[in-house]
Amino acid sequence: MAEKQGKLIIVSAPSGSGKSTIIGRLMQHEDLRLAFSISCTSRAPRGTEQNGVEYFFLSEEEFRRRIQADEFLEYEEVYPGRFYGTLKSQVEELSSQGFTVVFDVDVKGGVNIKRHYGERALSIFIQPPSIEELQRRLQARGTDSAEVIATRVEKAAYELTFAPQFDRVLVNDNLERAACGAYEMVSRFLKDE
Question: Which residues contact 4 (CB under 8 A, 6 or more apart)?
């Protein structure tokens, strides 16, 4: 158990690549002893989202105050006034309890966390088989307008350029195979001393 203490798993991917589903599958493996890092956001809760479950919801002013106090491991102003970030205190708390902390972050956040923790962290980039397949998946969700999908696809093309900065690249062309691949990567990383 001691060799697992203090390790971190960073998962990043363009929207629609299956990142959240793969992380959800990883979290089901009790043998990995994972704890999910809940991000902060300055946006309002959506639907049934609850503070401390999906996100920690902060006002823009509170988020900016915490940035000034250097409380974030990483943060990003995704849109004007809309921030997302990871609190250092939450990561330290989970890590001190012997959990391996799992991050679901954008590519810039993933690169920054990896830079901060170095060999203590495994960074995994989940890649769609192609931009065309990613666009098809986003359209199949039925949750976004054509304009929003076009913006996400354009952003995804940019995010794909970050893949070489990650320790591992996992192509999600088959969800079951990708979920198994992620488990194998994480399991091996946690067994290495």
Answer: 33, 98, 100, 190
